[in-house]
Amino acid sequence: MRRSSNILRNHVPFRCINAPAFAQFDVQAHAAMRNMSDLNYTLPNVSSPELPPRDGIVMVVYPKLVPSAYATIRALREILGCSLPIEIWYRPDEMEHAPKALDPLRYLAQNSSGGQISFHQITDPVAKRFVAKIYAIHNSFFDRVLFLDADNVPVRDPSFLFNSIDFLQTGAIFWPDFWHPTSTMFGLHSQSMLWELLNMPFVDMFEQESGQLVVDRRRHGAPLELVLLYATHEPNFFVHYKLAWGDKDLFRLAWLKLNATFHMIETPPAMAGMVTNSSAFCGMTMVQHDPEGEILFLHRNKHKLTGLESGSTVAKNSEPEGPESEHSNSLRVDEYPDPVIWTHLLSFDGNWSREHYVVQAFTTSLNFTSKQKCFGRRSLRHSQQFYVQTFANQTFAGLETDLRYFAKHATQL
Prior knowledge:
Layout: H1 19-38, E1 55-60, H2 66-79, E2 86-90, H3 92-95, H4 103-111, E3 117-121, H5 130-139, E4 144-148, E5 152-154, H6 165-170, E6 172-176, H7 194-198, E7 208-216, H8 221-232, H9 237-240, H10 250-257, E8 263-264, E9 270-275, E10 281-289, E11 295-299, E12 344-348, E13 360-366, E14 369-377, E15 386-390, H11 399-410
Parallel strand pairs: 1-2, 1-4, 2-3, 6-8
Antiparallel strand pairs: 4-7, 5-11, 6-7, 9-10, 9-12, 10-11, 10-14, 12-15, 13-14
Helix pairs in contact: 1-8, 2-11, 5-8, 8-10
């Protein structure tokens, strides 16, 4: 086993007592996959190949994410015209202290005519935190899944992804993260111990962001099973040695390990956020693209919707009027509790090489908080590899107003 100064992230000690188990990890994973192959294993709830595939959206929620999920679903149904059925997965034990948390989503299920919404419990004691996402995809009743984090909203009906050439050819579409081997927050470079754990060569590519995934479960049962094994194996070396962050890279790693086909979106993530008085760009939302390079998803990973006034547990105002028109810009910015955070977009100039794509993490003061965590650039004056656009000029400019209205409505149900 290699020992050097940069194979593990800072302050992560390697204990020699774990060396045998570490060395045997890939052997055990390989044996498990071979056993499943011998038994002709298929994922749960997969329909017969002779039948048309069942397509749908999968989400996982817990109480604090319900306003975000409610807003995303209403945007999908009422603004984007998406009629894909939606599965809501949740852990009952996470709802015990908020027994009515799911009421807004159940209201949508009963009153929305745009498509079916169903609810599914996660009872496996191991399927907590990021493993819940993997469990939901693994056990979904859809054959072809678009997984969406609850705080991730498309700007167009995403149904077309199931019929895109890249998906039909590969059966899986993944999206890149901000990080790559020469600019990595999580230590996924060529010398990482990750590659030794998995017994595979270093792969020089963008890391993965799993706020959205499109997977054909009938076609990719084996890699999905391997993802679950990676996430639940004990001891969990990915977690103990910080070799990967949550679930985000486990999908591409499992696919790579099994030489399974997937398409990684080529356009690096952009950022939606605000330009500060000091000419920094504070990105609070990861912007992902479709296979043609057009904006498709806005993932509010640094400032989530709550529908509440700051410090409140219930909405203070009476039922607000709905948005005046689709993607309306005419409502006052202070009409709803959640602040406006999408004033600008920061995108990478594709004429530069990947090594110049460097996203900086920092904290700054904005008009609604003194300590906002940001992904962006500390100085736009020294960021010629990126370009700024005004959010108001985008075709989906009014979407944030609608989402803020929907989130507030969720707290009033």
